[in-house]
Amino acid sequence: MFKAVWAEGRRSARTKPGRPSFIGLAGVAAGAVLAMGGLVSPSAAADRPTGIPILVYHRFDPAVAGSTTVTVAAFEAQLTWLAKHDYQVVPLHSAVAELNAAEPRSKAPVAVITADDGHKSVYTVLFPIIRRAHIPVTLFIYPSAISNAPYALTWAELQEMQASGLVDVESHTYWHPNFKVERRRRTTADYAAFVDNQLSRSKTVLEKKLGRSVDLLAWPYGIVDADLEAAAKRDGYGAAFAYAGGPAAAGDDQLALPRIPVSDADRGERFGVMLGTRTRARLEP
Question: Measuring CA to CA, which residue among 89, 78, 55 is closest to residue 2?
Fold first, then answer.
């Protein structure tokens, strides 16, 4: 039985009002009991990994895995691994603040959970788990699909999850284009206008529908270059995220911060090795 108990987490000094709180994980007992805000042993602090693993998921299912679908059993096993190794799961904004801090402010290793695209299983499968465990999650959404595509979340579901205080909703562009394809088929001026529309329109729609600021962006397919970064900066994004690359570290490009794609097979030692390994960037499937 997967259980969870709540303890008030510490809020990062740079976490904005209304953002999810800084949450801690600590292994409490057998059976995957999660306790938030637990103390970290001196040995765990001494072994603090370099960088912050920002995990990225897409879809969830009670029992059936897929190329981008993680089962409940796998996800809970991954949470258990984090708990047993004294990781605190923190909001993405807190992690960005930590990366930019002159000195690390957390004595425990921290990790972040993100989910891309806005698949309906985020509400039906993931949300009940994080609500029981009080774990913060950031969703990267492309608004064109919301309340439109049959596989996607609705605006009401996003509003409900955001109201829980555990879910932060950020931008994944307006309709998840492949920027390499669009660059090839458009003129220079048309492509620049297209990029600006994808970035600014997504931000505007999300802010209007959800009533809060949006300043983080996940690049579709992990495609990012200097021109895209410049456009993101112009459109008011403070940080943006690639699709792979390993744990994020201080000094990384703030508009192409690496993340770690997670699959159903990533459990136990394999999951732990992945959290501490820098890799070459790859494209989202």
Answer: 78
